Amino acid sequence: MSVVICRCEDLTEEDILEAIEKGFKEIESIKRHLRLGMGQCQGKTCVLLTHRILARELGLTPEDMDEPTARPPSRQVSFNVLAGDDDE
Amino acid sequence: MADYKETGVLSLDDIVKPSLERMNKGPVVVIECVENIPCDPCVAACPKEAISMEDITDVPQVDFHGCVGCGLCVTECPGLAIFILDTTSEPCTVTIPYEYLPVPEKGDTVYALDRDGKRVQQSQVLRVRCSGKTHGITISVEKENAWNVRGLEVKK
Amino acid sequence: MEDNRIRKHPVLEFERGEEIYFEFEGERVKAYPGETIAAALYANGLVKFTESKRHHRPRGFFCAIGKCSSCIMRVDGVPHVRTCTTPAEDGMKVERHGALPEFPKDVPPNSPRPLERDIDVAIVGGGPAGLSGAIVAANHGLDVHVFDEGNHQGGQLVKQTHQFFGSHREEAGTRGIDLAVELKEEAHKAGVHIHGGSTVLGYYPDMTLTVEHENKLEIYRAKAMAYCTGAVENYLAFENNDLPGIYGAGGVQTLMNEYGIIPGKRVLMIGSGNVGLIVSYQLLQAGVDVVEVIEAMPHFGGYQVHASKLRRAGVPIRTRHTIKRALGTEQVTGAVVHELDEHWQPIPGTERELECDVICIAVGLHPDNQFLRQAGAEMKYVRELGGYVPVRTPDMETTVEGIYVAGDAAGIEEATVAALEGKLVGYAVAERLLGGSEEITMKKEGVQKSIEGMRQGPYGEYPRRGVKMCTLEEEVC
Ligand SMILES: Cc1cc2nc3c(=O)[nH]c(=O)nc-3n(C[C@H](O)[C@H](O)[C@H](O)COP(=O)(O)OP(=O)(O)OC[C@H]3O[C@@H](n4cnc5c(N)ncnc54)[C@H](O)[C@@H]3O)c2cc1C
Ligand code: FES
After folding, report:
1. Which domains are seen in chain A, by residue range?
2. What's the pLDDT at C169?
3. Contact by Cβ (8 Å): C442, C450
4. Does residue C82 have its Cβ closer than 6 Å to ligand 2?
5. Higher confidence at residue C443 or residue B1?
6. What integer best gives the mean pLDDT of chain C?
C-alpha cells in the first residue's frame, strides 16, 4: 500500500527512502533525482513531508534543511499564454 | 494541562458561578470561556456593562449583580460559550445559543443535551430570539439539570 | 434532481441563478453560474478527477483553491486546466486526460507583445492582508493594483461562516464572509484596481511581475510590492493517503461554504487545531456527520470553546490518536485509526475501523511565499510561524528593498493580524513612495501596537516568539 509524498510526480515514501539510500541527502538533490516538487503544484505539498522523512532518517532538524530553489512560473501555465495568442 | 484540554468538556469546577444568593434573584449569565483567547465581543454586547476585560486576552469578568440576565450576549459570543440560567422560575430555564437547522419553535419539545452531547431530558421551548444568524433558545429544565444542560437537539 | 448541493443552511444563503449545462465526457452536467467546473462535477457525484502519473491511481481534488493541481482536466481542448478555479460555462466541453496529458498542438507561431504596465504598488493576494494594505496605500493617492487568482476576493475570509474572534474594534463577532464584503467595498471606494482571476506567475528583477489573466500574459513593473499570498495546507503521510475523498480542510470549506456543496455524508477529521474544530462545526451546520476528530497530541490544539461546541453536539475528540490507513480502492470507504503512546508509537491492539466517505486533513498550514524566494529575499525556518518565512523589518519589509510581506505568507496567524499587517505595509509603502510624515509614523506605531495586543496571552506566545526570531532589530535602508 502506498504512502504518497508527492502527488504530482506520484512519488511514494519508498521512492524517497531509496533515493536517500543512494546518497541523495538533501531536498535539492532528491528533487533533481526524482523530480520531487517539480510537478504541477511546484512543491506545495511534498517538501514538508520530505523534510520529515529526512529528519527521521538522517537525524536532521528543519533548521538544518532548506527549501528547493524556486523559479518562475510558480503555477502551471500553458505555452499559449507564454507565447502570446495571435488571434486578436 | 487541564482535563478539558483532552476532552473538550468543562467540569463544574472550571466555571465561575454566580453566588447562590444571586442565583435566587433571577436569570443570570454563565460564561463558559476559560482560556485567555484574544476575543471581546461579549464586553460590547452587555447593555449593563456587567462584563469587563482589561486586556483583550483576559477571560471575561462578570459583575453578577450588574447582570440582569437579558441574554443579549448569548448570541454575540463567537465561541457560543454564554448561557443564561434561571433557577427561580417555575420551571427553571436555560438559554442556549443555537446555529443549526431546523430552528425549533416556541412550544416544541426538544431533547436537552449535556456538555458531552448526551440527552438528559426532554424540554419545552419557551422562547426563541434571533440575532443575525444565531438564535438564543430558552428551554425548560428540571432544577437538578440546570447546571448540566448546555445544548439541544430538535426531534426528527 | 438529487445532488450534493446544500439547499438550506442555518447561516448561508446560496442564490443559484439560472441553470447552465456543460458536457463532461459526453454527459450533460448541470451547473450554476459562479460554480467552478470542479464544484459542479463534484455536486453531480464525480470523485475521480485525475489519474496519477506512474501508478495510475485515482485522484480526487484536494485543495480546491488552485494550489495543488489535483483537479486538472482538458477544457474546450485546452489541457491542464485547474478545474477548481475555472468557472463552469454553458456549452463547455470538459474531459479528463489520461496519466500523461499530451503536449498542446496549437502553440501559436508568433507572439504579439503582452500587455506591459508601470504602476505604483503591486499587491499579490486579495485576502484580508492584501486588501487592507491596498486600501491604505490607495487612500494616500497611490496607484495600487491587487492581483488575486480567485474570482471573488477576500481570500480565506470568504468561506468563514462563523463569527470571528478578536477585538470588536477589529470586527470580531462579524462573520468572515461579511468582512470580505466590507473590505472589497472599501477597496473600491479607495480606488484600488482589483484584478480578479489573475494568477501571478513569477517575479523578475526590477520589481517586475508576470500575470496570467484570461489566458493572456501581462507584465507589471511596480515601485513597491507586497506579497500577501496566504498559506498552503500541510499534507499528511499515511497508507492510501491519495484516495479520492481525502481532502484538505480548506478544500472542504471552499466546497461547502463558497459553493454550497457537501463533501460527503460522514467525515473523519484529522487535526484539532482551530481549523479542524471550526470546519467540523461547519460540517455539522451543513448537515454532515462528523464521525470523530482525531489528534496525535495529548491535548487538542484549538480553543476550548470550539471544542466544547462539538462535544455538545456529540462529536468525540480523541487525543493521542492518528490515522493508520484509508480504506477503499476507488474512493474512501473508511479509515483505520489507532492510539499513540507517550513516544508517539502506535499502541498494539488499539486499531479501530471507522466508516466514513471523507477524510479531512487539518494538520496545519505553511506560508505560501515562493515569490519571495524567487525575488531573493532571505528566508528563515521558524516553526512557530508554520515553516519558512521571510526575514523582515518591523515595517514588514523583506531583505529585498521595496518588497513587503503581510498576513499568513509572513507567518501563520489569524485574519485580524493579517489585516493589521496589511495596513502596516500600506503605510510603509506610502512612506517609501511619498516620503515620511509625523502622521504616517504615528499611524504605523498605532498599528504595531494593535498587532502586539493581539499577540498577548498564552495563545499569542507562540507567534510572539516566532516573529521575534525573524524580525530585524533596525530597519534596513
Ligand atoms: C477554517 C479556518 C478558520 C479560521 N478562523 C479564523 C478566526 O476565527 N479568526 C481569525 O482571525 N482568523 C481565522 N482564520 C485565519 C484567517 O482566515 C487567515 O489568517 C487569513 O485569511 C490570512 O489572510 P491573508 O490575507 O494573509 O491570506 P488569504 O486570506 O489566504 O489570502 C491570500 C490570497 O492570495 C491569493 N493568491 C495566492 N497566490 C496567488 C498568486 N500566485 N496569484 C494571485 N493570487 C494569489 C489567494 O487566491 C488568496 O485570495 C481561519 C482560517 C481557517 C482556514
Ligand atoms: S488545484 Fe484544484 S484541487 Fe488543488
Report:
1. 4-83 (1.10.10.1100)
2. 61
3. no
4. yes
5. C443
6. 91
Pocket of ligand 1 (CB under 6 A): A 74; C 124-130, 147-150, 155-157, 160, 164-166, 199-200, 228-231, 250, 253, 274-275, 278-279, 368, 407-409, 413-416, 418
Q: Is some CB atom of chain B closer than 8 A to the CB atom of C269?
A: no
**DSSP category for residue A71:** -
Task: Give the separation between CA C361 and CA A84, rounded to whole angstroms.
Answer: 39
Nearest by Cα to C214 from C146, C115, C128: C115
Task: Give CA angle at C84 (C83, C85), nearest 5°.
Answer: 90
Domains for chain C: give ranges and CATH numbers.
1-110 (3.10.20.440), 115-232+366-470 (3.50.50.60), 246-363 (3.50.50.60)
Domain boundaries, chain B: 4-154
Looking at the CA of A8, name the nearest ligand: 2
- The ipTM assigned to this model is 0.97
For residues C158 and C176, give the distance between their C-alpha atoms in angstroms, rounded to a whole number: 6
CATH number of B4-154: 3.30.70.20
Distances (CA, A) of C145 to B93, C156, C193, C457: 55, 19, 5, 36
CA of C85 to the centre of ligand 2 (A): 8
C108 with A83: Cβ contact below 8 A: yes
Locate C103 and state its grid cell: 503536449
Taking contacts as CB-CB distances below 8 angstroms, the residues of chain C near A38 are none
Which chains lie within 8 Å of chain C at 3 or more CB pairs, if any? A, B
The reply to whether ligand 2 has any atom less than 6 angstroms from the CB of C71 is yes
- The C-alpha of A86 sits at a distance from chain C's nearest C-alpha, in angstroms, of 6
Give tens-digit pLDDT for C222-276: 999 999 999 989 999 999 999 999 999 999 999 999 899 999 999 999 999 999 9
Nearest to C415 by CA among C163, C52, C197: C163
pLDDT greater than 60 at residue C171: no
Per-residue pLDDT of A20-76, as tens digits, reads 999 998 888 898 899 888 777 777 778 888 988 998 899 888 777 777 677 777 776
Within 10 A of A24 (CB to CB), how many other CB atoms are there? 19
Please identify which residue in the block is written with the cell numbers 514538508: A48
C-alpha of residue A84 to centroid of ligand 2, in Å: 25
